[in-house]
Amino acid sequence: MESEVVDALKRDYDIHLSFGESRRNLITRGVALSHLVGKTFQVGDVRLRGLRINEPCQYFEKLLNRPGIEKALLHRSGLNAEVLTDGTIQVGDIVSEVEST
Question: Domain residue spans in the chain?
């Protein structure tokens, strides 16, 4: 999930969501995750393939008790990705697209 989306929730919808509450494995800044759908990319030592944009659900809204969060996160709730290699990801690692061969 993009940290800019968390900022927009606060600014545009007055919904406060911590990164932990987002239930996402990674939070990025400055990375357009929608551009990684169908692409292979790397974070730290880990190679991944972007599968699809994640969509929020009613369960998530009920779990967090944040009315309106499902609608606010529509089409920007993060990226589902397939993990292709083992490795380590650390805070501050760069997300970089991998050239296809």
Answer: 3-97
The average confidence (pLDDT) of the chain is 92
CATH topology for the 3-97 domain: M1 Pyruvate Kinase; Domain 3 (2.40.33)
At 41-74, the pLDDT tens digits run: 999 999 999 999 999 888 888 988 888 899 999 9
The beta-carbon contacts of 49-53 under 8 Å, at least 24 apart in sequence, are 49/81, 49/82, 49/84, 50/79, 50/80, 50/81, 51/79, 51/80, 51/81, 51/82, 52/79, 52/80, 53/77, 53/78, 53/79, 53/80
pTM of the entire predicted model: 0.83
**Scanning the structure block, which residue is given the tokens 């309106």?**
68
